[in-house]
Structure formats: C-alpha cells, structure tokens
C-alpha cells in the first residue's frame, strides 16, 4: 500500500530521502537517485519479510531525526550519523525495539524549531505535549527515552508529531471520527507522564492517527474543537 507522498520540485544532489521502518531501521539515499522513475517504480529500500516502511522525509543532510515507538519511547540523533546509501541497501539501525514493539513515527527538524513541542497520543485517546529540549541528542541505535507512558489506561502510542502552540491538530479515530483542536489547548508536561484525555474512546472506538494542520491567516477558526463524522 502507498505509505507516503512527497512533492518534489528539484532533484537536487544536496537533498536526501530519509526512510524509517517499523523494526527501527533508517536509511538515507540521495534524492537524485530517484530522478528517473520507471513505470514499475524504483526500489527505495530493501525490506525484511517482517518489516514495513512507516515514514519518509526529504532532508538536507543536516537535520535532527526522532523516532517514536508504540511503547512510548523516543530517540533523537543527528542525521549526519546515517551515511548515504544506494537504493537497494537495507539501511542501518536507528532505534532498538523488541519483537512486540514497532516504530510508528519519523520526525525530522532543525534548530529553527527548537522551541516547539513533541505531541504524543495513545490509542485510548490520551496525549500531551513535551518540550523538544527534553529529548537530548544521542547515538542512533539505542532504545530511546520515555516520551509518554504506555500504561494500561493509555494503551499503545499511535503517533508523535512536532507542534507549535498555534498549530491545529487533527485526531482521527478508527470508525471515521475526526476531531480538530488547537495544540495550545493540550497540556504541556514532562516526558515521564501519562498525559490528559484528547478524545473519548470505547472498546470499539480507538484513536489511530494524529496530524498537524497549519492554520492559514484567512481561515475561519470558528469551528475549533469540532467533531466530523
């Protein structure tokens, strides 16, 4: 299935495609290697049978990278620690996860957004913001640090994104409900906490995804916190 769509205007030799998989592998390939597409597609990463691609980003080789797992852990490392590889290579370890755990989010950023927060959310509808500065840069390949507690109350983590106080966030449930709210209304607390309720869930209704929305100046904000079916 299609996993990501990346708009590209210029296949610059100074740009890279950074990929992350559920088993914690990361891979960086020069963007120019994809400048001549084929009707059958191009191999981007050599995946093992039990692995799948979970995130893709275009970078400049100087970004910071953060991987978030469904166990509530996050690891941050410098992109420069991942060397460029050919299209058919398998990649290197970015995060160590157990057999029952998976990486669910790939986040890339630079110093220009150092004052923003990581928003993490769980399947039972809980979440929180944590200052980006609480996640210090480490060597890739480790188990990471706690981003949010994956407790019985919270359930597994379903996503992690970078937000500012003025960003809007879309919360998406498995039965088609969408809730839009402002990131500034979500509590900002430390890493090793459970968070607060973002969306009401049931045994059948679970949170499955969250996404950041950039609010345009001319957009009417009168419908914040609306629920759409």
Describe this structure in words.
With 229 residues, the chain is mostly beta strands. 0% of the residues lie in helices and 36% in strands. The strands form four sheets. It has a four-stranded antiparallel sheet with strand order 3-1-2-6, with no helix packed on it. A four-stranded antiparallel sheet has the order 7-4-5-10, with no helix packed on it. It is globular.
Question: Which labels suit this protein?
Answer:
single chain; about 230 residues; mainly beta; four-stranded antiparallel sheet; 16 strands; globular
Task: Note the run of SSEs as H and E.
Answer: EEEEEEEEEEEEEEEE
Task: Report the uncertain regions.
Answer: none
Mean pLDDT across the residues is 90
Helical amount:
under 10%
Strand order of the largest sheet: 3-1-2-6
Number of strands: 16
Q: Give the class from helix and strand content and strand pairing.
A: mainly beta
Contiguous helical run count: 0
The general outline is globular
Q: Sheet bearing the most strands, described?
A: 4 strands, antiparallel
| Proportion in β-strands | 35-45%
């Amino acid at each position: 299935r299609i996993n990501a769509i990346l708009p590209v205007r210029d296949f610059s030799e100074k740009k890279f495609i950074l990929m992350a998989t559920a088993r914690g592998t990361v891979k960086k390939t020069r963007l120019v290697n994809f400048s001549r597409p084929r009707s059958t597609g191009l191999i981007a990463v050599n995946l093992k049978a039990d692995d799948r691609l979970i995130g893709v980003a275009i970078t400049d080789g100087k970004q910071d990278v953060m991987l978030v797992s469904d166990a509530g852990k996050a690891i941050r490392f410098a992109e420069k620690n991942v060397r460029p590889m050919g299209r058919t290579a398998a990649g290197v370890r970015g995060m160590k996860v157990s057999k029952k755990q998976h990486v669910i989010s790939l986040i890339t950023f630079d110093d220009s957004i150092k004052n923003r927060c990581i928003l993490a959310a769980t399947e039972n509808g809980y979440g929180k913001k944590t200052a980006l500065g609480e996640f210090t840069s480490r060597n890739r390949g480790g188990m990471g640090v706690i981003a949010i507690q994956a407790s019985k109350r919270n359930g597994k983590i379903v996503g992690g994104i970078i937000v500012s106080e003025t960003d809007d966030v879309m919360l998406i449930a498995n039965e088609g409900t969408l809730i839009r709210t402002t990131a500034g209304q979500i509590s900002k607390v430390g890493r090793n906490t459970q968070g607060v309720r973002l969306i009401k869930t049931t045994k059948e209704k679970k949170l499955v995804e969250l996404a950041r929305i950039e609010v345009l100046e001319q957009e009417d904000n009168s419908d914040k916190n609306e629920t759409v079916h």
